[in-house]
Amino acid sequence: MTAGRRGTADHGYGRGMTLLQDQILTVSDTTAEERAQRLTAAGTAWHERIAADAGAAQLTYRVTGRGIGSVATEIRAGKHRFLVDEPAALAGDDVAASPVEYALGALVSCQVVVFRLYAQALGLTIDEIEITAEGDLDVRKLFGIDESGRAGFHDVRVKVDITGPDTAEQYEELRRVVDAHCPVLDLFANPVPTSGALV
Amino acid sequence: MTAGRRGTADHGYGRGMTLLQDQILTVSDTTAEERAQRLTAAGTAWHERIAADAGAAQLTYRVTGRGIGSVATEIRAGKHRFLVDEPAALAGDDVAASPVEYALGALVSCQVVVFRLYAQALGLTIDEIEITAEGDLDVRKLFGIDESGRAGFHDVRVKVDITGPDTAEQYEELRRVVDAHCPVLDLFANPVPTSGALV
Questions:
Q1: Chain segment B129-147, per-residue pLDDT in tens
Q2: CATH second-level architecture of A98-191?
Q3: Percentage with pLDDT > 90 across chain A
Q4: Residues 11-70 of A with CB under 8 A from B
Q5: B100-191 in CATH: which number?
Q6: Does B85 touch chain A (CB under 8 A)?
Q7: What is the distance between the alpha carbons of residues A183 and A12, in angstroms, rounded to a whole number?
């Protein structure tokens, strides 16, 4: 397995610029057999850890973001970092995807993980998987033009394209199981108690 | 303003590897005056567009993700792309942040944009802003160990650290206004109608 590595080229950025992502991210190809072994091992390990100590099921995730540039944010999540920006129409420099696009990307990528996990559990095969998420948003609330609506997406549609040897009925059953167990889909579909505070 | 540019070094990746992010993302420094001009111009332009055509307020965002490697996803959002992975404990290669970390990063970065926007609208000054989001998750639902709970975060805490010349009361009022208008906070705090389908 190949983890991310840093590029070694001298990119020669001048003063007044912030180098935000200098990691060249790669992932090696994985055979279906290797993925199956990893998923089975991961599931078994979690079952054993949680059977021994129910508290092992409780995870806290934490990310920190620093406002940079015009309206951009540099996010740190453990050893990883990524940049979020806005297009010019929202006062940004458009050097990275926007917050709501990252939210949709979180949904799509979480679905991929859970499709992998439950395909393995149900004995189904996924040769290729591609997922599109679309979200509709009315910007009038964001800009305070109309306070009656909501600020976030009022409709999200997820379209899953799987290729593989199993039947449409089996993949549809898989999709239903995935949707019942996907953390980010739950975050979209159901209210999450969220509190804010100045520190 | 400096948009992202591609590195030109030959990174010499061999066969069997997928180059996922070869963009070196940078954002130039922005003065407070320049940001203020951009935010004001952006807000004015949206008000004018929407006054002329209410339909201009309706935006549809779309991202597509392709499963790669073990459980990773390469996300495309317009001209931008980013990689999502999982740590080894979830069968990944840990070359990028995980889906739930991207969800928290979406929240943090959206808050930053809306703090910028409403600080400008309210005549407040933000010298520096750093936001941390923590989310608590019980993995038993994800792994099907206990079906009674929820798959996503059951609690999220957002901590906002602002430095600037205005009073604590003014920043607290700003925070309340931001939370009422932040698209991704709304996505967390309230249910979003979300449908899935195989294609």
A1: 999 999 999 999 999 999 9
A2: 2-Layer Sandwich (3.30)
A3: 85
A4: 11, 13, 16-30, 34-35, 38-39, 41-43, 45-47, 50, 57-70
A5: 3.30.300.20
A6: yes
A7: 41
